[in-house]
Amino acid sequence: METTIDGWSGRRIASGAGAWRDLVLVFSVTVITFLLAGLLELSEGIGGWLTPFERYQLDELPAAILVLVAGLGWFSWRRSRHAASEMELRLQAQQELNEQQAHYRELFHEDLSGNVLATIDGVIGLANPELARILGFTDPNDVVGRCIGDFYADPDLWRRHRDALARGESIASSGLRLRRGDAAEVSAIARLSSRRRSGGGVEMHGFFADVTDLELVRTALAKALDENRQLAQRGIDMLEAERKHIARELHDEMGQWLNALKIDAVSIRDRPDMPVEVKTTAQAIVELTNHVYDVARELMRRLRPVALDELGVVSAVQYSVDQWQRRHAGVACRFEADEFPEHLGEALNMTLYRMVQECLTNVTKHAGASEVVIRLRHDPAVGEVAVEVADNGSGFDSREPKGGLGLVGLRERIDALGGRFWVEGGPGHGTRVCARVPVTDAGA
Q1: How far is CA 278 from its chain centroid?
Q2: Cβ neighbourhood burial of 18 (10 Å; 0-12, 13-18, 19+)
Q3: Which H helix or E strand runs over 4?
């Protein structure tokens, strides 16, 4: 770039010196002409020569020629000024072009992505160091002249890319497999495009970013996430099994003992020979036994709803909604489950039941709603069931993290079954909790 600018500057200096020489020459010729004309009395001679042609006004010719010469001099001066301005613009354009070329080279060679210029057939004409590194070389010149299609792990994919580029299309690939010079494979994000050169022909420009390490990390994270989900599902299964066991123990053991205690108290109360104080105490024991049994039955229902095992998920949810409605009479609660299968497998039934239960608990604690709608839907065409719980309460921003673990637990349950879980709404616009879960053959 410096050489080019210095050359233009030298030419400009030489042009200025030549202009001064020409100007001195013009003045010298003018002075010499004046001296010779005075010595030879040319004006008088020219006047004598032109006297016969005075009727044609040729005697005025010297003045016209003088004006013509002055005009030509002015014209030459204007042209020289224009030429100087044109030269200055060209110098500025050349300097800007050199700066742009230097900037382009810097971007091309120092870019974090692999850059390549190649023919439409893939023959590499220019590559930067990052591309050489991606392809397993240390020097960019080592890949020049090679065909980029030789580095494709799938040759058929390269042929499709080449044909698409020939048609003027652009290609974007997020998981392109490339085979390095040492036969190792790498994963890259690639973007290829073609453009027609000014001199004719079509060239390809490609960008490649090595994401092999990112793919490894992603695979490791996916594996860890899958293991965590399996662990979470295992924990959920153990929790439900323990709840089921506790509910059964409450029903079988505690229920029998409470019933026996109540029978004994009733028998003591009904004996005619018992004092009034004893009968009063026996009646208090009966009432206390009934109260404890009601509490135990509520605990059993919360731990393991009997209707879920005996009648199915729709009946269990309906019973839970009815019980909730009795405790919250000021909230209009509507439950819809048209043509919904009752038995979908223990895990899916329990997940749907727990989701409705948790959502109703959240409505009680946080929403302040006046209306709640619960919908269960079955879509046999896609083999999915859907559950939706919507309220018109205060709502919340679902993008902000919450301290509770209720929705997090629901999401884990749904994810473990291969479903999708999401929450819609915003502050002042209510909340809508939705889930879609596939129905397996075993569950159906």
Answers
A1: 78
A2: exposed
A3: helix 2-40
From 286, 306, 314, select the one nearest 385 (Cα to Cα): 314
Candidates 75, 92, 80; CA nearest to 18 is 80
Cα separation values, 119 from 132, 168, 196, Å:
17, 13, 11
Distance between CA 191 and CA 175 in Å, rounded? 11
What is the per-residue pLDDT across 55-82, written as a single tens digit (0 to 9) for each?
554 555 565 566 567 666 766 776 778 7
Helix (H, G, I), strand (E, B), or coil: what is residue 409?
A: helix
Structure letter (DSSP) for residue 439: P
Amino acid identity, position 394: S
pTM of structure: 0.48
Three-class DSSP category at 123: strand
Please check whether residue 308 is in contact with residue 349, taking contact to mean a CB–CB distance below 8 angstroms. yes
Residue 400 per-residue DSSP state: S
| CB atoms near residue 324 (< 10 Å) | 19
- Which residues are registered as beta bridge partners of 119? 203
Tokens of 78: 């204007």
> What are 229's two structure tokens?
């989900």
DSSP character at residue 52:
G
Tell me if 355 sits within 8 A of 314, measured CB to CB.
no
Q: Which residues pair with 420 in a beta bridge?
A: 436
